[in-house]
Specification:
Blueprint: H1 5-41, H2 47-50, H3 53-65, H4 69-100, H5 102-116, H6 124-130, H7 135-159, H8 163-171, H9 176-187, H10 189-207, H11 213-223
């Protein structure tokens, strides 16, 4: 089936737009790196605190030469996957419980709001005392940073489900389980997907230096 000129023109416009978006994204990153290196080389910023692209490349190179690069990558990926999976499971279960039980949701919701306002990075010393300076401490930090936001996102999505669709299933005597898996979850696919992306990014934040790995690094590394 041949496409009309209008269709070809429309598809070409989409391709050009996608190319321009990708080019702009890459240009911003390259410009940022060049500016960062320039400011560091000319002492406009303290490279000891902010580092610089050249120092980062040198560090990666030295880690590779000393056969430590992939060890660090493996440890970080392992911690990220564990914290991401645990956060997703726990937040999903709590959001479902809150959705099905209004009493529990009314009791828990103020605590979630209060906990979300806490500076979770400041909990690092407490985690060291309670759990220890080890991989469990890093994973706990990552979970604490991402869990509350994940629960709130999922719960808000669940309660915003179209009530007419829920009423329709209730007229057919559908159980809560049927409503959950046939209406609520399908209706919130986009919310669940965006929450997973937030979980992944927040878990990585919990593992990055000065938050997770910087606090617990030496002890964790010795375990491997």
């Amino acid at each position: 089936m041949k496409m009309s000129k209008e269709q070809k023109k429309y598809l070409n416009k989409i391709k050009i737009t996608n190319f321009l978006v990708l080019f702009t994204q890459i240009f911003i990153i390259v410009l940022f790196i060049i500016l960062w290196q320039f400011l560091s080389d000319n002492n406009y910023i303290n490279s000891f605190i902010t580092s610089s692209p050249s120092r980062i490349i040198t560090t990666i190179k030295n880690l590779y030469i000393n056969n430590n690069l992939f060890v660090h990558i493996f440890i970080t990926l392992k911690e990220c996957i564990i914290s991401f999976v645990l956060t997703t499971i726990i937040s999903f279960l709590i959001a479902i419980i809150m959705y099905h039980n209004k009493f529990i949701s009314r009791v828990i919701e103020p605590y979630l709001i209060a906990l979300n306002s806490l500076p979770k990075v400041a909990l690092g010393p407490i985690i060291i005392i309670w759990i220890g300076a080890n991989i469990k401490g890093i994973i706990t930090m990552a979970i604490l940073i991402s869990l509350i936001v994940s629960i709130q996102s999922l719960y808000n999505g669940f309660i915003s489900t179209d009530p007419l669709k829920i009423k329709l299933l209730k007229t057919f005597n559908a159980s809560k389980k049927d409503i959950l898996f046939n209406v609520v979850i399908p209706y919130n696919k986009e919310t669940i997907y965006s929450t997973l992306k937030i979980n992944l990014s927040m878990c990585l934040i919990g593992l990055l230096p000065l938050v997770g790995e910087k606090i617990f690094f030496n002890k964790c590394y010795s375990r491997y």
